[in-house]
Amino acid sequence: MTTDLPVYAFADCELDMRAHELRRAGTPVHVEPQTFAVLAYLVAHRDRVVTKDELLDAIWGHRFVAPATLSTRIKQARQAVGDDGESQHVIRTVRGRGFRLVTDVRATSNAAAAAIEPGGTSAAIEQTIRFATAADGVRIAYATSGSGPFLLKTANWLTHLEHDWESPVWRHWLRELSRSHTLVRYDERGCGLSDRDVKDVSFESWIRDLETIVEAVGLERFPLFGMSQGCAVAIAYAARHPERVSRMVLYGGYAQGRFARAKTREEREEAEAIIRVMPYGWARDNPAFRQFFASIFLPGGTPEQMSWFSDLQRLTTTPPNAVRLRTTSANIDVVDLAKRVTAPTLVLHATGDAAVPFEQGRELATLIAGARLVPLDSRNHILLEEGAAWGRFQQELRAFLHES
Asked: How far apart are the first and last CA of the chain?
């Protein structure tokens, strides 16, 4: 699969749509995701005036935002591209109507840019899907994308190697992780392109599957990225194979699943209730169930994003497998293993996460010696590209991975 988005060149700037990066004179310039989106929209519609209402609808959708928010983003966009706001030689305010990009723009493909730029960092992303066979005969699908040193991502709740690239919930994650690395990721047993008719979906089988992928790719020493339930798998692997893991990034994770950390009967019953209703909502087109489950992971998502998320989950696995996988994750307990991790570790967690409370991120950073915690201002368990927390996540991830 190929994702080839353009690079827009104007003034002394380049707006790389695939890498989601603004560069001035070849140097990356940090911009907040919403500011980038505003700039990208103006560039794409440079042939006309874009009204304020159109910009608000395109960037923020159904969400209400104060008028000052758009003014702030326009100001930030001007500063980022070197427009002083008075001469307005890049972004012009058309009084009473809206805004227009007034400089010449040249669009090239990422493939063409890669032929020009050393190292090809803007190259179109190509994904290759292969299969590895675990010790018990289960075929695990894995994919590689991007270029550069390897970065291995552990499997998390219900992925699909092919369809994730099309999802507005996941594709910006895959672009970012493939940006300056060769990303290796895989579908856990029971879902996605991996075998679904499997007997063993234990936590131990998840660790063995990760070991299988490491051997299949031929990795020796590499950084490990874990997300949500994949954090526990990453921790267990790092504790068993300290010689393999150079550093570790954990986002939205936990040391104990919902059953393992339940302190009261009410907490246990709440966790069990979610699992009990899953077979009914999973197998049917049940809008109430879809809304409930998606709202836990994406409370700040648009209707389109929530719909994509719930549809993708049903596409990735069967109702019985969803229950088995959810039950296994609820019983996870890697508290003792976390204490044995020696790899430098970065822990990131959304402060308003409803799926995995922020306290779980604090606990991970406490258990792993020397781990650094980065709180992210978001209510979403899966960070969305439009949120400010996504920009902070990108900064911290890039800086940490490049320290080595």
From this structure: 30
Distance, CA of 95 to CA of 134 (rounded, Å): 64
**CA-only gyration radius of the chain, Å:** 22
Least Cα distance to 248 among 312, 375, 130, 341 occurs for 341
- Beta bridge pairs of residue 126: 2
Q: Provide the b/e sequence for 363-402 (b: ≥16 CB within 10 Å).
A: bbbebbeebebbebebebbbbbbbbebbbbbbebbeebbe
**How far from 257 is each of 231, 263, 281, 295, 400, CA to CA, in Å?**
11, 12, 22, 19, 27
Three-state secondary-structure class, residue 92: strand
Q: What SS3 string covers 46-82?
A: CCCCEEHHHHHHHHHCCCCCCHHHHHHHHHHHHHHHC
The phi and psi torsions of 95 (rounded to 5 degrees) equal -50, 130
State whether 157 and 292 are in the same domain.
Answer: yes
Angle between helix 265-283 and 287-297 (nearest 10): 130
Residue whose tokens read 């044995």: 340
Task: List, for the chain, all residue ranges whose pLDDT scores fall below the cut of 70.
Answer: 1-5, 61-65, 85, 109-124, 281-291, 404
> Do 361 and 241 reside in the same domain of the chain?
yes
**Angstrom distance (rounded) from CA 260 to CA 363:** 14
- What's the pLDDT tens digit per position in 273-302? 888 878 776 656 555 665 677 788 999 888
Residue 367 lies in a domain: yes
107: containing domain: 2-114
